[in-house]
Structures are given as C-alpha cells and as structure tokens.
C-alpha cells in the first residue's frame, strides 16, 4: 500500500502504534542519514526501541558484503521475527534493505520510505529486492512486498540535480510503455526541478503499481517495466567496472534510446515515433562515452539478462508511444545496429 505522508507523518505513526514490533531498525546511507533521518525522527512517535544502521552511499555498496554485514548486525542486536526494518533512502537502500529483511530469519517485515525521485516512482514499489553480483545488476534477490510504502515528496528538496534527472528517466519509461499522455506531460517540462515534477509523481507511481499488480513475479507484462534496461543494464555494469560509473537512470536513458531505435529496426514503431522519442530523451540526458567498451563485452552481458530464455535475448520493445511488447527476439545484426546508432548519435 502506498501512502503520501502528511507533514506530521501521522499515517506512519498510526501504523507503528497498531503493530507491535519488538524493535525497529532504520537503514540509511550517509546522505539520507544527514538529509532525511532528522525529518523522520522529528516526526516519529513511538515507544519502540530503534537502532540506526548506516551504510556508505552508492551502487557499489549493493552487494553481498554489505548484506552480510547487515545480517550480522541484526543477529548481534538480537533482531527477532517481530522486528521491523525501515528503509529510508533511494533505490540502493530499498533494494538492499528489502533483500536483507526478506532473507533474515527467512523474512522479517520492512517498510520503504523513498527519498529519491527514482525510488518514489519506481524502486520502492513492486517488491523487487536484490543485490548486484560481480557487477551484474540485481542478480540475487527476492520478490517480497514491503508492508507499507510512505512517500513524502519534500525529501526531494535536498536531492542533487543529477539524481532528479536519473529518476526522471524511469518516469519517461512509464509513459513510453503504458501512458502516452504521461509521456507528453513529462516532455513539456523544460527544467527538471522537483517542484515542476512533483505533480506527475502520483501518475508514475500508479503506472508502476498497476503493472506489478497484473504480474508480480514477472512472468509476462511486468517485463515491460524493463524497457531500456536490457542494453541499459549491460552498459551500467560495464561503467560500474570502469572509472566512470553512471547512475541507473542515466543507463536507462541510454538503453531507451538504443531500444527505441531497435523497436523501429524490428518494424514495431515508425521512424517518426522513434525519432521523436530519441530527440526528447536527448533533451535531458548527456551521451555516455561507449568508445572504451568492446561489443563482445556488451553482448556477453546481454546474454546474461534475467529476461532471457533458451539462450536467446528477450527484449521489451515499444509498439507505439504508450505501448510495449515483451519477449521479443531481435536479430544480432539489429542489436548491433542499435548500439552503433547510439555511438554515431553521440559523435554529433
Ligand atoms: N527494485 C526496483 O524495482 C528498482 C527500480 C528501479 C531502480 N532500482 C535500483 O535502484 C537503484 C538506484 O536508486 P537511486 O537512483 O535512488 O540511487 P541511490 O539509492 O544510490 O540514491 C542516489 C543518491 O542520492 C542520495 N540521496 C538519497 N536521498 C537523498 C535526499 N533526499 N537528499 C540528498 N541525497 C539523497 C543517496 O545517498 C545517493 O547518493 C539502482 O540500484 C537500481 O538498480 C530498483
Ligand atoms: O520493477 C520492475 O519490474 C522493473 O523492471 C523496474 C526497473 O526499473 C528496475 O530497474 C528493476 O530493478 C530491474 O529489475 P531486473 O529484474 O531487470 O534487475
Ligand atoms: Zn530501472
């Protein structure tokens, strides 16, 4: 259940009163500790003892070592099955905290309080939890719903501009796969500041929630939420191993450019529509330099994508602005062309 918090966080306080948790663990990273935790603690009314668990910020922390440390701390602090984890942060915190909670003692309860645009509109919703493995994205994880998701848009006031942009990429994705009007509303925005984007957050959350409700375990339509992620995740993984890591949303923006062009090459959308989509994504996102990456390394990552079956790469591609098909297998030639297309575009 997603709730927009009032300024006293009264819905959260009511939830805490109604449930009898033995102990509360608030998971933060160094930035959400500084910028978001004071607001949460200033409003939280509970007699239950709580502990703060802090990890360093960044995707590099979303791994088994961090999960292990958190499991150990929970054990040392004698967290029992009636303990609650509150994930206060961006997608790294909600993915990681959800994973730790859903596996510790075979599962304890957790709630998500997203503090980035990306986690409000996407990562905190839908119950995909997980960690990266050897730079492969989200390779180990669970499907586990949080007890509650509490959204407080004012957390965005301290979010750096490039993180706002990163979240905006997933919002654009929601419009492209499911709601043309949402896409058209978003591309009217000239400046990506939280105040301008805020009115569109509920619609983006709703699109994500609806798709998840239709197919929680990603057997079919949920795969559309992965549009832009097949090539996007491959490049994100390569960048994570380089000296120039990129943000998840930046990778998704790149992936959506390649996969929109691929949708056209595969005869699913018109040249005009793919051109329009790419032109608009380009308005907001800088190009990522791919010159250092070998095509064979990109393909090797594509071959490990979670949507694949029978050693075939399954793409989620656009069949129009606002509609998406899944399990679409493309020719190797067209996949290569879509990557070359991006490289060429970035030369101009
Ligand atoms: N589970 C899902 O469905 C899902 C969906 C999309 C993305 N993801 C995952 O989410 C992750 C990306 O999430 P993200 O973009 O939120 O990254 P993030 O969690 O790393 O947060 C981005 C940065 O912003 C900082 N920050 C967070 N809130 C802040 C605030 N209010 N003020 C100031 N700084 C703040 C963080 O410390 C961090 O440095 C990736 O690992 C991605 O794979 C998961
Ligand atoms: O919720 C989903 O389903 C998504 O695919 C949302 C994506 O934006 C998100 O990045 C997700 O973590 C990707 O999942 P993965 O299974 O491709 O790792
Ligand atoms: Zn994503």
TrEMBL record:
Keywords: Amino-acid biosynthesis, Aromatic amino acid biosynthesis, Cobalt, Cytoplasm, Lyase, Metal-binding, NAD, Nucleotide-binding, Zinc
Protein EC: 4.2.3.4
GO MF entries: 3-dehydroquinate synthase activity
Subcellular location: Cytoplasm
Enzyme class, spelled out: lyase
Domain 3-dehydroquinate synthase C-terminal: 167-308
Associated pathway: Metabolic intermediate biosynthesis; chorismate biosynthesis; chorismate from D-erythrose 4-phosphate and phosphoenolpyruvate: step 2/7
Ranges for domain 3-dehydroquinate synthase N-terminal: 53-165
Catalytic activities: 7-phospho-2-dehydro-3-deoxy-D-arabino-heptonate = 3-dehydroquinate + phosphate
Pfam short name (any one): DHQ_synthase
Cofactor requirement: NAD(+); Co(2+)
PANTHER family in UniProt: 3-DEHYDROQUINATE SYNTHASE, 3-DEHYDROQUINATE SYNTHASE, CHLOROPLASTIC
Similarity annotation: Belongs to the sugar phosphate cyclases superfamily. Dehydroquinate synthase family.
Job of this protein: Catalyzes the conversion of 3-deoxy-D-arabino-heptulosonate 7-phosphate (DAHP) to dehydroquinate (DHQ).
Protein's UniProt name: 3-dehydroquinate synthase
Protein encoded by which gene: aroB
């Amino acid at each position: 259940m997603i709730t927009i918090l009032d300024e006293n966080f009264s819905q959260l306080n009511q939830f805490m009163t109604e449930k009898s948790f033995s102990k509360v663990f608030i998971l933060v990273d160094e930035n959400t500790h500084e910028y978001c935790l004071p607001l949460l603690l200033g409003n939280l009314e509970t007699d239950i003892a709580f502990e703060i668990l802090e990890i360093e910020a960044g995707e590099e922390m979303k791994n088994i070592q961090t999960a292990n440390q958190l499991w150990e701390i929970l054990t040392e602090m004698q967290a029992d099955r009636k303990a609650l984890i509150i994930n206060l942060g961006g997608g790294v915190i909600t993915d990681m905290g959800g994973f730790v909670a859903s596996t510790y003692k075979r599962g304890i309860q957790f709630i998500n309080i997203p503090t980035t645009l990306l986690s409000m509109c996407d990562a905190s919703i839908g119950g995909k939890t997980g960690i990266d493995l050897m730079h492969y994205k989200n390779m180990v994880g669970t499907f586990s719903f949080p007890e509650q998701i509490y959204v407080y848009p004012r957390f965005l006031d301290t979010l750096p501009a490039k993180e706002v942009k990163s979240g905006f990429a997933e919002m654009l994705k929601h419009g492209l796969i499911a709601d043309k009007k949402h896409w058209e509303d978003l591309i009217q925005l000239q400046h990506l500041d939280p105040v301008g984007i805020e009115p569109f957050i509920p619609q983006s959350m709703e699109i994500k929630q609806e798709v998840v409700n239709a197919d929680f375990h990603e057997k079919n339509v949920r795969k559309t939420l992965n549009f832009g992620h097949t090539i996007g995740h491959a490049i994100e993984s390569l960048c994570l191993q380089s000296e120039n890591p990129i943000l998840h949303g930046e990778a998704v923006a790149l992936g959506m450019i390649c996969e929109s062009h691929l949708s056209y090459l595969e005869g699913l959308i018109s040249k005009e529509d793919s051109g329009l989509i790419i032109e608009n994504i380009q308005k907001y996102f800088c190009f990522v330099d791919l010159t250092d990456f070998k095509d064979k390394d990109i393909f090797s990552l594509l071959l490990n994508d979670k949507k694949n079956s029978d050693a075939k790469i399954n793409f989620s591609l656009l069949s129009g602005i606002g509609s998406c098909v899944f399990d679409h297998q493309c020719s190797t030639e067209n996949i290569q062309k879509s990557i070359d297309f991006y490289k060429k575009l970035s030369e101009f």
